[in-house]
Amino acid sequence: MLDWAALWPCARLQQKYALVAYLLHILHHALCAKKPRLYKQDNPVTARLLAKCSLLLETYHPSWFLFNGHMQTILVAMGCDAPQVKYKREILSLSDGGIVSLDWAQHPNGDTYGHDHPTVLLLHGLTGGSSEIYIRMTAVKLMQAGWRVVVMNARGCAKTPVVTAKLFCAAYTQDVRETVRYLREEHLPTAPLVAGGFSLGSNILLKYVGEEGESCLLTGAISVGNPYDLLASNRNLMHSWLHNLLYRSALTTNLVTLFFEKSNAHTHFVQHPAIDLNHLRSAQSVWDFDDRLTRHVFGYATVSDYYRDASCSQYLKHIRIPTLCLTAEDDPISIHTGIPYDDCEANRHIVLAVTERGGHLGFFTGGSVVAFPDMWASNVFVQFCNAVEDLASNAIPLERPGVSVLGRLFQPGIKPSSPGPTYDPSPCEAPCSTTAQWVCVTLALGLGAKAVYDRRSTLLGTRIGWY
Predict the structure, then answer these.
(1) 248-263, pLDDT tens digit by residue?
(2) Residue 371: how many CB atoms within 10 A of its CB?
(3) Pick the catalytic residue: 243, 360, 404, 454?
(4) DSSP percent split of the chain into helix, strand, coil, nearest 5
(5) Which residues contact 463 (CB under 8 A, 6 or more apart)?
(6) Using a CB cutoff of 8 Å and minimum separation of 24, what contacts does 211-215 make?
(7) Sheet holding 350-355, edge to edge
(8) Is 199 in the active site?
(9) Phi, psi of 411, rounded to the nearest 5 degrees
(10) What percentage of the chain carries pLDDT values higher than 90?
(11) Are 341 and 39 in contact (CB under 8 A)?
(12) Could you tell me the end-to-end alpha-carbon distance of the chain, in angstroms, rounded to an integer?
């Protein structure tokens, strides 16, 4: 027989826990649920896009147990094993002898796509790949909406072999350029082709789109969690013990592990005269890694020169296709001080949507300790792609008569080398979602008072330097 008296303290504790959680939920909703701030120009194209993107005009409700950008970002890093996406891999040989891999998402019910089917190209973040939670959740939603999805895995990422002495680089857009050209030549010469990038991938994407200008072969572009200014982002990673603990060391470890363990990249640099592999292995920051490797490979005198050249903010004024930029003000990695508000607003082709909460690539909404939250940004992603497709089919003029959103119809260029054989990559491994959420809930209850205090201090005009 149960001893109810013995269980009473436990029951009281659970009641208190539930009450605290409920009160934090109400307070969090009152303080953090806000509409995205939009920076844009008023014109027929923008109006048409926003009419199809209702989520950008409505209140975004961050998950109640994710009190700040750190919580959102941590949950992205911990990930979830659902949804599962099966890919078929294609190896694309590039003009300089290197390769990238294209992971084509397979529709869960076995549907196949025609030759010229509307397609979305996804670009992952630093050291990521097609198995990342933000890629999989976005891919599933896009396929449900009728889009074909392909993920470009950068050199050395997601088990993509490195065959030359060149790894991925934030300033190097040629791999994306050749991938887009290949897709246009071989898969969809006229159908809408939208590209979406996340974190570093979004920086590379917008730099490419700006470089191409009027000649861009994409129908539209979407940027999520873009750092925009790599110098500002790097300074932010070094400015506090919390950033050192949570982000700088993790990003550096991921880079070193990818280079030396998860890929064969290091084998191509053994004889490189400017690179000391032992020195590279001991890198303590992303800056160190780029100083000891990237700047030498790509010909930069200093890391600062490299970061200045790689920052996409200077290319935004040249973008000539419909572009959506999603950014969270509490992103602890892509710092809000680097957001180019005026440059985005000055370009009639760009819509910048800034949420108060969302973290780095999180934008979680809903969910609980037993149900993984949804990604608001993925839903916006689908709405924008559908809006761009609608614009393309109706051919609204942009720059001058005769130039539509689909615009610049594909013109054959230099064809990349033929792709290699296809294969199915091994399924990703991700931690259990329940474990991830309980960790976040525990952190939330511990840091909730701090988050509320930060918010209250901001309202009172006091700047709190805790990110």
Answers:
(1) 999 999 999 999 999 9
(2) 11
(3) 360
(4) 45, 15, 40
(5) 457
(6) 211/173, 211/315, 211/318, 212/177, 213/318, 213/319, 213/320, 214/320, 214/399, 214/408, 215/408
(7) 37-39, 350-355, 323-328, 220-224, 193-198, 119-123, 148-153, 99-105, 87-93, 422-423
(8) yes
(9) -120, 130
(10) 69
(11) yes
(12) 51
For every residue of 84-121, DSSP letters joined together read ---EEEEEEE-TTS-EEEEEEEPPTT-----TT--EEE
- Which among 101, 131, 199, 311 is annotated as catalytic? 199
Q: Assign a CATH topology to domain 33-229+312-418.
A: Rossmann fold (3.40.50)
Is 268 an annotated catalytic residue? Answer: no
Q: Could you tell me the pLDDT band of residue 408, with boundaries at 50, 70 and 90?
A: very low
Question: What gap in Å lies between CA 294 and CA 392, rounded to an integer?
Answer: 39
pLDDT digits (tens, 9 = 90+) for 81-131: 889 999 999 999 999 999 999 999 999 888 889 899 999 999 999 999 999
Instruction: State how far the alpha carbon of 185 is from the alpha carbons of 33, 38, 101, 217, in Å.
Output: 44, 35, 17, 11
Q: Out of 290, 330, 331, 454, which one is annotated catalytic?
A: 331
Which residue type is seen at 207?
A: K
Extents of the domains making up the chain: 33-229+312-418, 232-310
